[in-house]
Amino acid sequence: MVFSQSAILREEVEEAMSIQELIKKPLTSVPQRYIQLHNNEPSLLAGETFSHALPTINLKKLIHGEDIELELEKLTSACRDWGFFQLVEHGISSVVMKTLEDEVEGFFMLPMEEKMKYKVRPGDVEGYGTVIGSEDQKLDWGDRLFMKINPRSIRNPHLFPELPSSLRNILELYIEELQNLAMILMGLLGKTLKIEKRELEVFEDGIQNMRMTYYPPCPQPELVMGLSAHSDATGITILNQMNGVNGLQIKKDGVWIPVNVISEALVVNIGDIIEIMSNGAYKSVEHRATVNSEKERISVAMFFLPKFQSEIGPAVSLTNPEHPPLFKRIVVEEYIKDYFTHNKLNGKSYLEHMRITDDEKFTNASI
Ligand SMILES: O=C(O)CCC(=O)C(=O)O
Ligand SMILES: [Fe+2]
Question: How does pLDDT run across 197-227, given as a tens digit for each residue?
């Protein structure tokens, strides 16, 4: 009796942790906990066209092309007008991309007992499954593994080091390649913003986190959200929509628009920290992941932040009496701690919390 009760309990826990487990039973309607009313916001449907497509940036042309100034101009407007772009010719080989896709898919196909070894532990933000804050919290339609990756000393011993070795090996390679790519991009962003080079040094050997997500098909996709609307609390994020299934949407001028997958392209987006450092010249953009009724979607997002002990705030080279700082200065460690207690995934609310209010401007001016 005790055994069967605990078996039921385990099943319930596993269902809350994993949509893959939930949909093993025949399911014609979505359980209440997953229903999120998001359809009252205007959005473009997949077939509809938006007057401009998300910009595509060619990294090779940006570095070795014939007209680098023109490419830099394209990058500037992509960051300023969109906060998001597709990156092609990024230098990550097709073999690495394909191996990673197979290995990440392999992870989500592991039996539940295996994946539960990595489950989010009480009070933790890392691991497999959803961080459940309260009983009435709405749940997203996606199974995730979130891990801190760099510096190595912050790797959680029961997560990355314990992953199947073939997944770990390809991840090590991908993590390093993306770290190099992120630094190249950061340098280019600095150039377009005219931020002094040393102000971006905070990103060298900075913090790198990773979220792998498996979004199973859903019988009523219009009622759920794969990943709720949020902006990323990062410098930049590099997203790999690895199995070619659409689902990402970004909010542009108040309208949700779909980002179509371009084979082997990576999607780069500006996070809250670059919005702060650029003093609002580049803005982080709200985005979300939708799901569909036919095919699972798999993505890996890599997040790049400055070093723990560094301080972030509007770049000194961008602020002057005509352009006063719009955001507070804060040490990264503090920023991250506050983020996880204050916000989670909730629009751009955390960035707003960093904004210097009119009252504070007045107080500062009167000191
Ligand atoms: O899976 C996606 O398309 C979006 C992922 C994302 O935005 C995130 O992990 O922060
Ligand atoms: Fe995101």
Answer: 889 999 999 999 999 999 999 999 999 999 9
pLDDT attached to residue 211: 98
- Enumerate residues 6+ apart whose C-beta is below 8 A from 357: none
269 CA: nearest ligand 1 atom: 7
Helices (H) and strands (E) in the chain, counts: 11, 14
The pLDDT of residue 1: 36
Pocket test for ligand 1, best of 213, 228, 268 (most atoms within 8 A of CB): 213
- Does residue 240 line the site of ligand 1, with CB under 6 A? no
Q: Rounded mean pLDDT of 161-185?
A: 98
179 lines ligand 1 (CB under 6 A): no
What 8-state DSSP symbol labels residue 124? -
> 287 CB less than 6 Å from ligand 1?
yes
- Residue 33: burial class (beta carbons within 10 Å; 0-12, 13-18, 19+): middle
3-state secondary structure of 139: coil
Q: Taking 50 as the threshold, does the pLDDT of residue 165 lie above it?
A: yes
Q: Report the predicted TM-score, pTM, of the whole model to 2 decimal places.
A: 0.91
The CA 55 to ligand 1 mean position distance, Å, reads 18
Domains of the chain, earliest start first: 31-366 (2.60.120.330)
At residue 40 the predicted structure's pLDDT band, cuts being 50, 70 and 90, is low
Q: Which ligand lies nearest to the CA atom of residue 302 in the structure?
A: 1
